[in-house]
Amino acid sequence: MNDSSRGAPQGAGYWSAPEMGGAPAGPAHDVHGAQQTRPMPIVPDVPDAGRDADDRDDRNRDAARVSGPLFRDEKPQEPMSTPLPSPPPKKRAGRDLRAAIGVGVGLGALVVGSLFIVKAVFVGVVVLAVVVGLWELTSRLKERKGINAPLVPLAVGGAAMVVAGYVREAEGAWVAMALTALAVLVWRMTEPPEGYLKDVTAGVFAVFYVPFLATFVAMMLTADDGAWRVLTFLLLTVVSDTGAYAVGWRFGTHKLAPRISPGKTREGLFGAVGFAMVAGALCMEFLIDGGSWWQGLLMGLAVAASATLGDLGESMIKRDLGIKDMGTLLPGHGGIMDRLDSLLPSAPVVWLLLVLFVGSG
């Protein structure tokens, strides 16, 4: 390549325009030769192109040095593969299911055994449950709210209420309840007056909530088929709770009362109603003298409603106290009160419906 191809001036290889009649600006060429020769492209002279390339290489090395490993011996990490989506977690029960079943079977055997062997022994079991339930309730009130509901008059009066309900039925239960409430008012007077109103209010509430509702179980027992009535009451409540748990755990998506008990669902309520109605129809048809299956359907519906309300009421109390369980005596269940929550409000419902359907005898 000659010098004319490097940095050639514009018009090289062509005739340039004459200036003032003088000679052509570029070298003279034969016209025929010019027509046979293709013009060479003009390549701009870039003397620093090599330097720019070197600068770019330096910058690339600097960027690699900054973004590379921090230490000389480190090896660059290999790109992580995209993790496979994990399957959705399986639903799990909130408690130890084995312990809950074991304790439930043990309690059931104790209750049924005492119920059909000697009625007085079953009354003693009810009294024991009432006293322990009162102890759990008053202990949690004192720990969490500083409320000193007097346990001694509550326990003595509660036991007397259950026995009075068995011996003198409704009349004896009402009298024992009034005397127990009066004993709570008097007992609290032996302490300083600060907090008297809240203490006696909590005490009277405890009288009604635990022993008074439990007296309806003792009153059911006084009938000739009293053992079967109590068994029907227990079966309907347990079946209602089981249906709510099973259906709600498997199909529950719509919350029933999320602010009170987030674990309860509307599907669980439907399960409780369905299971309890079927159990009620079977119990009234085969266990209760003079009973009919349609009466059992109504009773099952009523028990599902009362058991659910009782469970929600207990959850409301525990949420106000800021606790999960009332006690720890029963592994997998919590405390005694955590098992009585649905039984207590269902007792007067079953007692009343049995009296209306088949009488009190």
Describe the structure.
- By secondary structure, this protein is mainly α.
- Among the domains are: 114 residues, no CATH class; 138 residues, no CATH class.
- 65% of the residues lie in helices and 2% in strands.
- It contains eleven helices and two strands.
- The chain has a two-stranded antiparallel sheet with strand order 1-2.
- A hairpin with a 3-residue loop joins strand 1 and strand 2.
- Helix 4 runs antiparallel to helix 6.
- The radius of gyration is 45 Å and the shape is globular.
- The N terminus is likely disordered.
- It is a multi-pass membrane protein.
- Pathway: Phospholipid metabolism; CDP-diacylglycerol biosynthesis; CDP-diacylglycerol from sn-glycerol 3-phosphate: step 3/3; Lipid metabolism.
- InterPro entries: PC_trans.
- Its main location: membrane.
Which keywords apply here?
361 residues, mainly alpha, two-stranded antiparallel ribbon, 11 helices, disordered N terminus
The 3D shape can be described as globular
Number of helices: 11
Task: Tell me the strand percentage band.
Answer: under 5%
What is the CA-based Rg, rounded? 45 Å
SSE arrangement:
Layout (H helix, E strand, L loop, with lengths): L30 H6 L12 H19 L29 H21 L1 H27 L5 H38 L7 H26 L4 H26 L3 E3 L3 E5 H21 L6 H29 L14 H5 L2 H16 L3
Antiparallel strand pairs: 1-2
Helix pairs in contact: 3-4, 4-5, 4-6, 5-6, 6-7, 6-11, 7-8, 7-9, 7-11, 8-9, 9-11
